[in-house]
Amino acid sequence: MITGAQLYTVRDYIQTEKDFTFTIKKIAAMGYTTVQISAIGKDIPADRIREVCDEAGLEIVLTHNSADRILYDTDALIAEHNLMGCNYIGLGCMPDKYRSTDWISHFADDFLEPAKKIAAAGKLFMYHNHNFEFEKLGQKRILEYLLEAFAPDELGITLDTYWVQAAGGDVCHWITKLKDRIPCVHLKDMAVDHGTAVMAPVMEGNLNFTQILQTLEHTNCKYLLVEQDICQTGPFDCLQKSYDNLAAAGYR
């Protein structure tokens, strides 16, 4: 498994081509060799994104895209991923309208066709979880509806360790349950600050990352992507601490 950086962590520093280029060089200097493209400035074209990352020695392995682009601009999105050399096309969050008993089935109705088109192009549609996917609608969790509606070659899960824990789930249980669907995972830790759960660099909080990483070894996981939505000590510091801790554990 290869350690990468989720660029949402540094979203404020990738809105222009100049800032993006500088930030990518900083991330490569930390030791990372892969990145996820997310929340990047809209005016930076895919071929330039690829060029900047290639120059820094960084492979683009996953993206997050708007629901509208996945639904209504699928062919162009696939073409952009071909330019970037990226095989995983991700959705960062389920739109609000689907999160009810009446509407959850509509998610598959809407997204199955683009998912099949993405699969036919040799890529995989990836869904990133938060905590709400562990809410039950009737007898099943939202996440379980997705697993039943899509085959593994139609939908992968970008499992987020923090949000599983935030939902009260057992991270290792869900890693095992999803072992054939998680080529990419998001790693972030959970700490406590004055009684409130906060995000923390990997291995700086209270999640059992020794067990988490050992469990991931028995799955189809290829990429360990460090993400910090909210950083207590600055995004670049969080990425560096996480990389150093993972590297010390044997994951680079």
UniProtKB/TrEMBL annotation:
Gene3D superfamilies: Divalent-metal-dependent TIM barrel enzymes
Gene Ontology MF terms: isomerase activity
Domain Xylose isomerase-like TIM barrel: 25-227
Pfam families: AP_endonuc_2
Alphabetized UniProt keyword annotations: Isomerase, Pyruvate
UniProt xrefs under PANTHER family: HYDROXYPYRUVATE ISOMERASE, INOSOSE DEHYDRATASE
Name this protein carries in UniProt: Hydroxypyruvate isomerase
